[in-house]
Amino acid sequence: MRARFAVASAAIAMAGVFFSAPTASAVTLPSTNTAHHCVRHTTGVCGWTHHQRPKDKYETAKCVDATLSYSRHSQGTCSHHHGVRYWFK
């Protein structure tokens, strides 16, 4: 009986590892851009690889219409400015 219980609880623990939700840190952008690299996004390109520099250390993206974005999350960044042209985080 104890052996079955141990096997069942091990199976439940393994299922929890494989089917757990992604952590919030995977979506959250850093607060400053001192690392000079970009997070992988679906639109826009990395500003650092195209020799672009942010205006200040808190700028996260430059929109297609040349406005600046300071958003903390990538979702919806520059949505009212025709999308992201360059990412800085």
UniProtKB/TrEMBL annotation:
A Pfam family reported for this protein in Swiss-Prot or TrEMBL: DUF3761
Record keywords, A-Z: Signal
Protein name as it appears in the record: DUF3761 domain-containing protein
Origin organism lineage: Bacteria, Bacillati, Actinomycetota, Actinomycetes, Kitasatosporales
Keyword Signal: yes
InterPro entries: DUF3761 (IPR022236)
Signal peptide residues on this chain, from the entry's feature table: 1-26
